[in-house]
Amino acid sequence: EFTVEEGKLWLLQTRVGKRTSLAEWVIAYDMVQEGLIDEATAVRDRLTAGKLDELFKPIIQAELKDAKEPVAKGLNASPGAAVGKAVFTADDAHEWAEKGEKVILVRRETNPDDYHGMVASQGILTSAGGTNSHAAVVARGEGIPAVCGAESIRIDRKAKKLSVKGTEVKEGDWLTIDGTDGTVYAEELETEPSVLEAAILGESEARRSKLWKAYERFMKVADKQRRLRVRANADTPEQSRNARERGAQGIGLCRTEHMFLGEERAAAVRQMILADNEADEQKAYDVLEPLQKQDFLGIFEAMDGLPVTVRLLDPPLHEFLPDHTELSVEVALAEARVVKLKKKELEEKKELLAKVDELREANPMLGLRGVRLGIFKPGLYAMQVRAIADAAAELKQKGKDPRPEIMIPLVVTAEELQQMREELEPVVERILRDAGVDLHVEFGTMIELPRAAVCAGEIAEHADFFSFGTNDLSQTAFGFSRDDIGGFLGLYEERKLLPANPFATIDEPGVGRLMDIAVNEGRAANGNLHLGICGEHGGDPESVVFCDRIGLDYVSCSPFRVPVARLASAQAVMGEATTSSR
Amino acid sequence: EFTVEEGKLWLLQTRVGKRTSLAEWVIAYDMVQEGLIDEATAVRDRLTAGKLDELFKPIIQAELKDAKEPVAKGLNASPGAAVGKAVFTADDAHEWAEKGEKVILVRRETNPDDYHGMVASQGILTSAGGTNSHAAVVARGEGIPAVCGAESIRIDRKAKKLSVKGTEVKEGDWLTIDGTDGTVYAEELETEPSVLEAAILGESEARRSKLWKAYERFMKVADKQRRLRVRANADTPEQSRNARERGAQGIGLCRTEHMFLGEERAAAVRQMILADNEADEQKAYDVLEPLQKQDFLGIFEAMDGLPVTVRLLDPPLHEFLPDHTELSVEVALAEARVVKLKKKELEEKKELLAKVDELREANPMLGLRGVRLGIFKPGLYAMQVRAIADAAAELKQKGKDPRPEIMIPLVVTAEELQQMREELEPVVERILRDAGVDLHVEFGTMIELPRAAVCAGEIAEHADFFSFGTNDLSQTAFGFSRDDIGGFLGLYEERKLLPANPFATIDEPGVGRLMDIAVNEGRAANGNLHLGICGEHGGDPESVVFCDRIGLDYVSCSPFRVPVARLASAQAVMGEATTSSR
């Protein structure tokens, strides 16, 4: 707003022009080129770290985007464009995807039971819920485009269709969603990969674009400025390469759960769980060890020369067995002869049910998992550690530079880490000695329980490193099970009962304070301790600034948020930062 | 050991004579009477607080105890003698008890699923597990005599019998156990109430006994010395009277769960849970409110003149509905026509199953419970608060002196308490004003989550009091679900992975530190704040000493441990204390 009065131009009111992430980078680049601002100013003040990941997502072709009219608009819950056939249940999403179909999962809201269908979908569309709803949080975490809370859409789940403004979309009909601006199209629109993605893959046209030039120039400045190193959470060679291409300086969290899954391994894993003596258990480990060694070979090769923090098995064992209720129903129906089973099959099912029953827990998050598993099943961690050390030794012999770090999860007393280390370190040393290679393998722990945080001084005496597992630390500090609070988190946000969603941004007064205690007392007890974070907060700009402030050495986040973390940690050092995540 | 050499008597070695709790008190009394020690020395150094509760338990008649030979000996896991018929499953214990039989539950080990049978039993006998096994911890918590780890006993669960040294005990045969010394008798032995118990009930012979005189004299000294007040955890008028007789100075925790149970209330509670609109929900509250008012009338009358801290409803709603697996099996069998149900009945069951499914949680301990319920079901806490205020107003009008304090459980942010208080305080004030009575009702919160502890300063601004819920605080700080860690807690203790059982004695470096932070920062923010503890640790002598040291105002424990806490808190003040709990 302005007025001209007595020959003078008065600016009555100004407001910040809303720019897309693309515009931010291009404008900043032009201004630097024209000498209006310097590079540091551009990086510090003109770029929004929290929106950088948008630039890596596919977009709807520009001419189509201009020409087409959306049928609905919701919240831009997770950036990127996605095209697929409409499905209305998570099970359908999962099944259709298995058959090779690209699907958009349409739901009123999602809940944890829908996870398998969500991750199988190209995109997610909900008619209810905000940008912190279950659908939105999962979608962002998994890098899946999502539009949430598109309230004009009426979903008829039973009839498997939606209707909006007179248009009807039935199961199997095409949908296109744009999670960057929240638009929904009832047709199949052509998308194109993002310019940055194409440039990273080496496409020459993309490499000539102004956006890529801006990205290269400013990220170089950011990397020079930042103090924090940036690692990625990656579990496979594929994810590791992906992370490395985006500038990851190592893997901060390599989960090993998936190494216990898959047809080839299922029988051995079941044997490992059901075994009632050590010899049977060992047979299972003998099957798993060479397979897991192959897994580690691939990951260490992809990350050659960079550290890879491997977390030993964490989830409770019953996650590898059938669901208790389903199995109970199966057995009951078989016993009533409704379902015909051979006597032997029924006996086996009953035996399995007895084991599932035995392992069933009231609160599995607080049960037999993490280091407790390592103590309860002594051969398990030893097998994993052998596979790691064997893989590293083999690569080292070939002249490669593997840098594994072994991480024990869920430690809560110093003695747990001490005893595990006493058991496992000699296993590693023997393998390396036998292979004749010289390699230092660090042992450390997650700090993910409040008691571990306040007793960090004692624990640090037995640790080479700490990695803050802020997902579990937030769950236990708040007493919030992420799987369960979906039902009331919305109400909490609406009524401002929480300062912010503690699973998106680190809760500084509570969880942050526990971290601060652990950093100070851990370092005081062990000057060589190095510290990182591998919870999802590691990719949230506000949380990255906090991690910089309390003096962590690195943050680790999902691969596609690595550039976000690189920029945010530079802005943390440079002061005055534009880091809001959305 | 001694020797006489060159006419001199040399004491080579001495050891402390092991005395029973009874002997401790009587010897100390005699020594004071003879002027060998003074009263303070007796109370400070000669009495073991942790063993005082033994003196309140029934004992086997002295002449029988001398004459009879035990068939087995195990660990003295929970003091007192118990007589009953042997049963071998928790379900049998429960059923037999319902029919009016006195039973001893015999198991190899117990687990949380056995709870209903354990509390229905006179005593518990296990052949495995130590003094911190599930059976032992529950038995002590509930005041049920128990002998654990009687390893010479062979239990045949299927045949429902045990055999030991050639003796066989079948289901329904008599057993007597003595949890004070760990002995087991394969017959029905006569027991007698403890002298102290009889004296408290006014029996004149007991009142003339030396033990009672010692108890009266020394507890008077203890009460004069101690700084901590001692309250009890009691949920009914009966328990309240019991607590008062043992010297409780109020109720620190009155749980309200049981006010939602019982035939008369079950239908209303189900309606409250299943209601899909506020009008239906309100109808349920209208049924429950007058019944709950009666409950509070009884408790406030029993505790006339003393504070009663009422905890609003805490457990998740699905605890009031059928088990998910059982209901799923029922529905599956009915649908397969194995079990014949009328169409309408089946529909109802299916509807109920849908609701149970909806409310089912992955980790109920960290789900929709405590204050979250109060926020989610706005009418619920208002109904409870009306019942409390109505009962208090009625008694006040009759010239009585009710002192209710309203406690909101599971608070984790200041805003939760602030908003609940803003909703509920006017409800109380209106009722008291309408009744024309002058009464100050305090509002406070449990501190039972780590975040609440480190953010206590903010929370204290909205609280009149804090009560440490150290059960849940220990569960979340350690990430230990009490229901689930039974399986590995034994292994942890064996391998010294834990300093002590954190559910028996407060873990000072972890949980204790969180408490200390909350005390200091809570008091700094609100000088009028009063502070107590209502976890089971409130009756553990070592924990009582810790609570004294960090400056709590009171401890609250189960009624039969009130004398223990009175003595322990005196010893805490007097220094050099003999407080070990066992």
Question: How would you summarize this macromolecular structure in one to three sentences?
Answer:
Two copies of one chain form a homodimer. By secondary structure, the first copy, chain A, is of the alpha/beta class.
Characterize the structure shown.
With 582 residues, chain A is of the alpha/beta class. The first copy, chain A, has three domains: 59-192, Phosphohistidine domain (Glucose Oxidase, domain 1), CATH 3.50.30.10; 226-316 and 364-574, Phosphoenolpyruvate-binding domains (TIM Barrel), CATH 3.20.20; 320-359, no CATH class. Chain A has 24 helices and 23 strands. The first copy, chain A, has an eight-stranded mixed β-sheet. An eight-stranded parallel β-barrel of chain A has the order 16-17-18-19-20-21-22-23, surrounded by six helices. In chain A, helix 9 (210-225) packs across helix 24 (562-574) and helix 16 packs parallel to helix 17 (414-435). Chain A is globular and about 95 Å long. Chain A starts with a strand and ends in an 8-residue tail after the last helix.
